[in-house]
Write a structure and sequence with these properties.
With 178 residues, the protein is α+β, with helices and mostly antiparallel strands. The protein has helices at residues 5-26, 42-49, 55-58, 148-155, 157-176, and strands at 29-38, 62-69, 78-87, 90-105, 109-116, 119-131, 134-145. Strands 1-7-6-5-4-3-2 form a 7-stranded antiparallel beta sheet.
Length: 178
């Protein structure tokens, strides 16, 4: 059976187009849960976590947190976060996100959304008492991507989970050293 060069070329050229169409039409969501145990009592953790200005202490790259509307920590409040992504002491890019508090009844649950260019992120945080001085911090992430971010999320979905893990570990270190 003889396959012509035209057929091979057609197959080779149509593959990237088909892949991009598949990604844009049928992918675009990531959902996962991360958790960590912190050597601190639950009440202390809630005070630290529920203060958004503490994010600068444990989330690398947070440059600002500005309340746009509503009252800080209350349902419906909106804030602007500016995050810088730094490599070798050089800012590679900045992302502006809008945070909105959906629920806040810690330790049971605090749910917020973050909206940025091509990304809608729903974050649910919970704290569970393990003992007097040990608490489990549970972080659920759900991402919905649009446009070019669908393509990025398709090829590197583990980067999002890895970054969430870093934030949990950094919060643990911050909280345990207070």
């Amino acid at each position: 059976m003889k396959i012509s060069i035209k057929k091979i070329l057609l197959i080779v050229l149509s593959f990237p187009i088909t892949l991009v169409l598949y990604i844009l039409l049928f992918t675009g969501n990531i959902k996962y849960t991360e958790e960590i145990e912190i050597n601190s009592n639950i009440d202390s953790l809630i005070v630290l976590f529920d203060n958004p200005y503490n994010m600068k202490e444990y989330m690398e790259g947070i440059e600002s947190y500005i309340v746009l509307s509503g009252n800080i920590r209350e349902v419906g409040a909106k804030a602007e976060l500016v995050v810088a992504f730094i490599e070798k002491d050089v800012v590679k890019r900045r992302i502006v996100m809008i945070e909105e508090i959906i629920t806040n009844n810690l330790p049971k649950e605090k749910k917020v959304t973050y909206t940025a260019d091509g990304v809608y992120n729903i974050v649910t945080n919970r704290f569970e008492k393990v003992s007097e001085n040990k608490t489990k911090f549970i972080n659920e992430q759900e991402f919905e991507f649009k446009g070019y971010m669908k393509i990025i999320s398709f090829f590197i979905p583990s980067a999002f989970k890895k970054q969430s893990r870093i934030y949990l570990e950094d919060f643990k270190e911050f909280a345990e050293n207070q």
